[in-house]
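Progress narrative, work stream C.
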Amino acid sequence: MRVVALGRDPMAVQPVLLLQETGGRRRVLPVWVGVPEATAIELARRHVELPRPQTHQLILDVVRAFSRRLQLVRITMLRDSVFHAELVFDGETRVSARVSDAVAMALHVGARIEAEDAVLDEAAVAEVGMVGPGDDEEASGETPSEHEELERFRRFLDDASPEDFGGSG
């Protein structure tokens, strides 16, 4: 999975994180998150270093202090409209986490993000033509800039309804 965009759902006036499969059917998984979590994800996406660590950075610092490493974030289930994730560390140590925290951590250290097929089958939407490979720009070998991708996402949200996304959480 890759972070495609982070924006604001105009219907819910709440940040929504869009994750897209990097292979296969290229489905898009919308995850509604809180404002502080969206801020943490965006700072991690942009590799912004703050004077003091945020909570997810502090946790990663503690993990590193014990010579461990975050290898993978896995979105494991959707229960009662809430996504659940786990952090997979070296040595196969697994820790339950909120998806928003897990994604911020993965972005901070460059760890892979995966989602169980059952979660994608239940909550993902088919590839949104304006968000991923298959667009005219990519067919011509050009990759859309982050700004262009964000603008297409905003146009998509303007016309989208909660029913377009199925479950939320």
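Work stream C, second folded protein:
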Amino acid sequence: MISEKMTEALNGQINKEMYSAYLYMDMSAHCTYVGLNGFANWFMVQYQEEMSHAMKIYNYINDQGEKVILDAIEKPPEDFGTPLEMFEATLEHEQFITKSIHELVDLANEEKDYATQIFLQWFVTEQIEEEANDNELIAKLKLVGEDGNGLFMLDKELEVRTFKPPAEEE
């Protein structure tokens, strides 16, 4: 059993994960619209990952015998700019999510909620990977600059990314 305060905070994180999914789905649609199908694929995989993160928290709250309460999801921005600007915004958003996860860990520590501490460690590790992926793509986009051939090659590289659901035992 987890506290009311922890349940509320975890429900808030579900909303943040769902917003992340919504944001990445919108970015995917934008990339498709401008003809960057590999980038669109990358963002669609991100959408799927974020939805799985939301569901992981959803299931944890239910497993703890508490009530999941869903809130409205904020509308994402309408203009994303260049691919580099998109990934810089993605990194900034993931850093916001990392901070939010760390705040949940802090709360679990304050409350001596050992089960939630253990549960959240998966998210701490996941955020390291999320930010590293964004940083790698930002570096590549800076390397290719405005070169259409480089952007085309990077688009082809991103086209092969696939979604791998988190293992159930994690």
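DSSP finds five helices and no strands in the chain. No further action is required on this item.
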